[in-house]
Write a structure and sequence with these properties.
4-stranded mixed sheet, 190 residues, alpha+beta
Length: 190
């Protein structure tokens, strides 16, 4: 069960983005660094993230070998860098933390990346994984028709931007949920 104690322990076992990427093989690390360079928040996105005030621990189950993780977790790191005092990102390897992964299965599978959003006292708030809507739409357009691209095909820039916006929208939704939470409003007197 995803209790605050369970989530706190998992979060504290997590690694920062850079430390997590460093656990991968040289090839895995290279893949992550190449994709990092494709992720750029717009000024409007950075401005929005700067307005966030409620602490948001965000725990990601991932695999350094996972293509979906390579194409999305750098986006989460960019979001954290825009407001690091409020957004606190930690990443755990799905296979090393199978007890957690088993509790957040998606469609009956151990999918990655899976992102758990919490409030400042580690209450569960939301989960999103393994892909955002924009990413699924792009995959469906490529794979559910007459044509199917070869594995390892590059991710188009518009898909990167749309997926980043999906993640940002979820961070904003969770932040607003936290700002409007009666429990947290009482705690903070606002």
């Amino acid at each position: 069960m995803l209790t605050p104690d369970t989530l706190r322990v998992a979060f504290e076992a997590g690694l920062s983005y850079g430390d997590y990427v460093a656990t991968g093989t040289a090839q895995h690390q290279s893949n992550w660094h190449v994709f990092e360079n494709r992720v750029a928040l717009t000024e409007a996105q950075r401005t929005l993230l700067a307005t966030f005030t409620r602490t948001m621990p965000v725990l990601v189950t991932s695999g350094t070998w996972c293509g979906d993780c390579v194409a999305q977790v750098p986006m989460l790191a960019a979001i954290e860098r825009a407001n690091p005092g409020v957004i606190r990102l930690r990443i755990v390897d799905r296979d090393e933390h199978s007890d957690l992964a088993e509790q957040i299965q998606i469609c009956g599978g151990l999918r990655v990346p899976t992102v758990i959003f919490m409030n400042e006292v580690f209450d569960f708030v939301a989960v999103l994984g393994d892909r955002t809507l924009a990413r699924y739409r792009a995959m469906a357009a490529r794979n559910l028709g007459a044509a199917c691209p070869l594995p390892g095909a590059p991710v188009p820039a518009d898909e990167v931007a749309a997926t980043l916006q999906d993640w940002l929208d979820e961070f904003e939704r969770v932040q607003l949920l936290l700002r409007l939470s009666p429990k947290l409003r009482e705690l903070h007197g606002d």
